[in-house]
Amino acid sequence: MRSLSVLAFVVCVSAEGLSCPPMYQMMEGRCIRALYLFEKGSADDFFSKSRPECNKDGATLPIIKDDKENEIFDNIAGSFVDLKGKHVFILLDLQCNSNTRRLEWTDGTPAEYSRRNTVNFNFDCVEKKDIPVSEPANDDWMMLESNYSGWCYTVFCVIDDASTTTKPSTTRPTEKPAGDKCGDYSSISDPTDEAKSCFKGLFWTKILDRLDFQVFTNALSWNEAERTCASDFGSLLTINSAEENKFFWRTAIAKNIIDRMHIGAHQSSENAYKWIWSDGDVPISGKAYDNFVNSFPIPGAGECSSMMAENTAALWVNENCDENEQPFMCRRAGEIWDFSAVPSNCPTVAPKAGKDFFPPGFPDPDTPCEYLLFVSANKLVELTVTTLVVDANKDFLEILEGSSLLRISPRPS
Q1: pLDDT at residue 353, rounded to an integer
Q2: For residue 361, what pLDDT band results from cuts at 50, 70 and 90?
Q3: What CA–CA distance (Å, rounded) separates 176 from 181?
Q4: What residues contact residue 114 under an 8 Å CB cut-off, 6+ apart?
Q5: Cα separation values, 155 from 66, 299, 323, Å
Q6: pLDDT per residue over 85-134, tens digit each?
Q7: Which of 333, 339, 319, 345 is nearest to 245 (CA)?
Q8: 220, 260 in Cβ contact below 8 A?
Q9: pLDDT score for 131
Q10: In this model, does residue 11 exceed pLDDT 50?
Q11: What class is the 209-331 domain?
């Protein structure tokens, strides 16, 4: 199948599965809301205003009791482009027990773990107003005075309830109440106008093990689109290679974006002949990847840009920043994807249930493959085709079921 982009086999899950409320996003297996990314103030002040805000959603500040959890929150902090290059202090959900006069986690368990055993918790927290914080830049923790207002803190609300972890189910998920506009957040991918308020921040797509981009099919001007991305700690799409350009074009087509969509290239405010990406000041010149139409960008024709999705070349043009309303994609961080991780041959073992997998040569595959998924008897199975772009009378998707390989879906024309 030449054009198959992504297939994902998912064992059907029950309605008990963890889903994130508005303003939260799934990161590292838990729902995260960034209340403050790099704000100056005292830990005491942040505790007093952050805990009520988190608690009303059933969330807490980070509770870290081992190295694995510490690494997870280091990774979460590292995924925010606004924290790149900054010395981050992550505020932890520790409190002083006035009876024991020792620090404890807000779940009532004693504070014993610290990264590298840096923190000595054997002190009177009533007398000594110190609080441990996580310091990802040094892969360590440190003690800070809780009433000192000169530090910049990062504050996350976290929903991580083990009782809501998704489990395989042999029953169909229960239907959502009629008045529930947002429904199951993990299943909404192209929201209606009614559900757009539920859309923000919840549907960043994980690709090649990176939580990286999000598609918005509602048309906005370039400036409005950039503000939308920035409000969710991202920026309009940066494209670093021909492979990425092809991937994002295919993604646009799969979302029925068949005309144009905004991308993050824009004119520098300092030099009309210099174009940069909205996630930084890297110029689009020299060895940097560039897919502008020949002679573009044209001075005076617009200070922003879009991709022309109507043909496979997916060329770029410049446009007015305020007038042209188009769909768009947001992207987090500036990593260049390593497409060498994509397999060069068909798989020799069955992919695991719940895991994404990629055909050889993705994002422009040209090798037909057969994929087998083995599931225990009496299990419901959901097959999700995330993206499928086909050539008429050439490509097809065929699904066979059971030991007899009975065809359960028609072969597309």
Answers
A1: 61
A2: low
A3: 9
A4: 121, 132, 141
A5: 19, 43, 37
A6: 888 999 999 999 999 999 999 999 999 999 999 999 999 999 999 999 99
A7: 339
A8: no
A9: 94
A10: no
A11: alpha beta
d(CA 367, CA 4): 10
Cβ proximity of 13 and 365 under 8 Å: no
Give the pTM: 0.41
One-character DSSP codes across 156-205? EEEE--GGG---B-SSPPPPPPTT-SS--GGG-SS--GGGGGGTTTS-PE
Closest alpha carbon to 13 in 167, 148, 192: 167
Distance CA 79, CA 84 (A): 8
CATH number given to 25-162: 3.10.100.10
CB 315 within 8 A of CB 305: no
Q: What are phi and psi of 328, to 5 degrees?
A: -160, 170
Phi and psi angles of residue 198, each rounded to the nearest 5 degrees, phi first: -90, -10
CA atoms of 17 and 133, how far apart (whole Å): 31
Average pLDDT score over residue span 188-207: 36
Quickly state the pLDDT bin for 366 (edges 50, 70, 90).
low
Q: Which amino acid is at 76?
A: I
Q: Are 4 and 391 in contact (CB under 8 A)?
A: no
3-class DSSP state of 260: strand
| Numbered ranges of CATH 3.10.100.10 in the chain | 25-162, 209-331
Give me the DSSP letters along 109-142: -B----GGG-----S-TTTS-EEEEEEGGGTEEE
What does the pLDDT look like over 318-360, one tens digit per residue?
A: 999 999 999 999 987 545 555 665 677 777 776 666 666 666 7
Q: Decide: helix, strand or coil at residue 291.
A: coil
